[in-house]
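User: Hello! I'm new to structural biology and keep hearing that structure can be predicted from sequence alone. Could you demonstrate with Phosphoribosylaminoimidazole-succinocarboxamide synthase? Please show me the input and the output so I can see what each looks like.

Assistant: Of course. The first part below is the input, the amino acid sequence of Phosphoribosylaminoimidazole-succinocarboxamide synthase. The second part is the output, the predicted structure written as tokens.
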Amino acid sequence: MADMQKLYEGKAKIIYSTEDPEILLTHFKDDATAFNALKRGTIIGKGEINCRMSTELFQILEAKGIPTHWIDQPAPNQMRVRRVKIVPVEVVVRNIAAGSLCKQTGLPLGTVLKHPLVEFFYKNDELGDPLLTRDRLLLLELATPEQLDQLKTMTLQINEILTEFFHQCGITLVDFKLEFGLDVNGKLLLADEISPDTCRLWDEGETDQTKRIMDKDRFRQDLGQVESAYQKVLERVLNSKTQG
């Protein structure tokens, strides 16, 4: 990658230019952060696991008609993607009450929601990625009304596909975060990654509230066995995709 220019380095990934101005190379890091980077650490092998899992899940979604920025995976921790202009809105969909939803509403952990809850957060580290209403999003001109409608529609479609797929893996998709971007033609594409870093995943075969956790909550809560949990998720994803 010596001949490539580093365009951006975030908490979990580094973005490089390529010989094609419309194609970028994403390098997945083993670095781990939580609570807006107030907690930092390393999860050995995380980069390769998250890259491979994102590749597999992007392909599943593409096959179901969801447009993504994914092109291919030239190396274990590298992904080639289409260049997009990231929409500065993180879209979170929740199927079961956990995390901040419990803290902010008082809902008991594990409450199954009657309908998936889609929320928009301002992608801004300085402000702490605040939850915004639709009117505030429009006030800040972070997206057009049409884009917000499209974001919600695509997110619910993705949730339906991934919920069913993870269920086949013996995993409950509790909630997850998505990011989207606009390509050179202004088309909205699913971007970033889908992994235990961005999803809250529970083992369907485990009733213990701590042991069932298979995602970055193990790092956030100092539960240990983070690497093995990530690896187990990837193994189930690969096995389920092969059987499918």
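User: So the tokens describe the shape?

Assistant: Right, they're a compact way of writing down the 3D structure. Reading them back into a model, for example: Helices lie at 46-63, 100-105, 134-139, 145-168, 217-220, 226-243.
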